[in-house]
Amino acid sequence: MPRGKKVRRIDYGGVEMRELSAIKTKRTFKEYMEKFYALYGFEETDFRMGKEKNTDYYFPADFAELLALILRKSSNHPFSRANYDEKKVNASQIQEYNRLMCESIDNELPSVFRDLIYTMPSHLQSVKLGDLTSVLVERLSLFIVNITKLEHQAMGDTVDWLCRELDKANYNLFRGNYFSEMAQRSNEAYSNEHHKEIIEKLYGPKNENVDDIERRMVATNNSIDYTVSLLIKHIMQATDELYEGEGSEFLDLGNKPLLHLLGLDVVPVDESNSDGQESHLTERTLFYHKLSKEVNQGRVEIAESVLEGYREKILKRKSIIDQIKDKSFREPGVMSVDEKKEILKVRIQEMQAELAKLEEEDSASQDDFVDSFMAEMQREYVAYCEKANQDSEKLKPVVDHFVGQVLINFMNTSGIK
């Protein structure tokens, strides 16, 4: 294939990709790409014709917009900043990056890619991080001031309470994750047992690499940029033949009646594909419209609804300070009669539903199964914590320093000034 020649007009070469990524120079583009390889586990040859070194850059339209999004925000990534030092990364930098990425997903991407990202569980979590990280810093800072400055606050009792609550929180975090993971494994096993032939007929033989990427894509705790990189890897699996120069144009420029029907002008295209950019943009738009038919719009609508509900909730949420100022605050445990009635109604409904469920179950066999399941989960929790304690050795000095800085103020009876 001649240098500079793309497989399809809708795809991107190096120059076009720099323009799409809003990067001015070849040198900066190369630097950003190298950071991309290092951060997300790609090779340079993944974006070269024929997957070989010393060939031209090549970016199929199937994922080019996703890659350009990450490259455009590369200078904002906490790990990509000049003179990056992991020890100096702060919460504000991470919050700002999440906020910028989520805003760009909404405002800069073609709708098909925006919808794909919305269906990923990590998108909502990244939106929340963009909103709430500064709130966490503010509340935690005030908590530290309170336990070290309030004269009648029992510091030892507070640490005792905090240790017990963190112990319960750690177990509950593992427990919730364990249930979700077991449910996912059960669904996969059922599909493999009962729908294997249909799945292989629709999607081809099982591919462990693809399955691994798909499992990681639906993880809730992915950062938003990592989720986008997984989408790129997933789409790459379906575009391998393009890198070998195989594949056909999305539209046939020889079919003039069809082009006129679509509102496209026929523009000659030279070897470097430098002409007819207006037609290319229109053709890409049509290509993205075709891709959008493959997105599960039901999942997109659910994600949009959940996000809208979260936005409404977060706008109404007030700190206790703000509630006191606008006189809407009530002491914990103080409720109106109507509020107490509503809580009782909900409890009665929950108890009735639980009673009906118990009446339908064979309690003996069910109890045996539950006991066995919970015992296995608890054993796995112990094993997990033993390994996690080893993995956290790198983090312990940082936490130790943080707690030490808090306790310094306890050693000084005048507290934080």
Key features?
single chain; 417 residues; mainly alpha; 3 domains
Q: How large a portion of the residues is in β-strands, by DSSP E?
A: under 5%
| Order of H and E elements | HHHHHHHHHHHHHHHHHH
Terminal-residue CA separation = 70 Å
The coarse silhouette is globular
Radius of gyration (Å): 27 Å
User: Structural class per helix/strand content?
Assistant: mainly alpha
Average pLDDT for all residues: 81
Domain count: 3
What count of helical segments does DSSP give?
18
Instruction: Give a quick account of the main beta sheet: strands, pairing sense, barrel closure.
Output: none
Report on the architecture of this protein.
The longest helix has 40 residues, at 155-194. This protein is mainly α and 417 residues long. The protein has helices at residues 14-20, 26-40, 64-72, 91-107, 111-118, 121-149, 155-194, 196-203, 208-217, 224-236, 240-243, 256-262, 277-292, 297-316, 320-325, 337-360, 363-391, 396-411. It has three domains: 1-147 and 222-295, no CATH class; 154-206; 361-417, no CATH class. Helix 5 runs parallel beside helix 13 (277-292) and helix 9 (208-217) runs antiparallel to helix 10 (224-236). Mean pLDDT is 81; it is low at 268-276 and 413-417.
List the helices and strands and how they pair.
Elements: H1 14-20, H2 26-40, H3 64-72, H4 91-107, H5 111-118, H6 121-149, H7 155-194, H8 196-203, H9 208-217, H10 224-236, H11 240-243, H12 256-262, H13 277-292, H14 297-316, H15 320-325, H16 337-360, H17 363-391, H18 396-411
Helix pairs in contact: 3-10, 4-6, 5-13, 6-18, 9-10
